[in-house]
Specification:
By secondary structure, the chain is an alpha/beta fold. Helix content is 47%, strand content 15%. The structure holds adenosine monophosphate. Adenosine monophosphate is lined by residues 9, 31-32, 35, 52-53, 56-59, 64, 85-86, 88, 92, 157, 166.
Amino acid sequence: MKLVFLGPPGAGKGTLAVKITGLLNAPHISTGNIFREAISSASPLGLKVKSIIDAGKLVDDSTTIGLIRERLAREDVKDSYILDGFPRTITQAEALAAFSSVDRVINFDVPDSVVIERLSGRLVCRKCGFNWHKTFNPPGKDGVCGKCGGEIYTREDDKAEAVKKRLDVYREQTAPLIEYYRNKGLLTNIDARPNVDLIVENVKKLLQP
Ligand code: AMP
């Protein structure tokens, strides 16, 4: 099944995709992860996008569409994938429709107050990428990752100014995709306020044949 995960930053799309990818045997493709890997390896793409991402703005459509077009041309995603963080604009959604046919779009619905609470407390492991939270799921002793011992850090774009910008960008450019996919009959809303395991159960129920 070819799935798109939609929702504001902090809805938990990435965490949920990591849990669901194995269940569906559908590769998880996150444009945010692709960009962050490019930044940590200081590749030309990474150098180009770093300041944009740190400021909470969107990378330009043609760069982002090019990346996804290339990724979706590979054999492992011929029948199934989970797109997490793409599309984020109507232009991206139209481009995607021209080279792949999405089966279903799940919109993870969550109010701004929860987004701010989640993002402002998020801590990420530099080594394994696991998302922790200062209050709800602290990483372990001495500021190292409780899973792999890696260094814990706060994403530059989880700092207050960038979070505000990301929410504005979401409202202006990404939220219109809800209507876009609803009109195509592809959209289902899921309440993303409960804990992750409960949301995973709800997604599983939804995707049962
Ligand atoms: P994420 O991890 O999905 O929150 O993405 C982190 C950042 O990467 C976003 O705030 C954007 O700066 C950039 N990004 C990720 N996906 C896209 C996209 N589809 N279009 C433009 N920029 C993106």
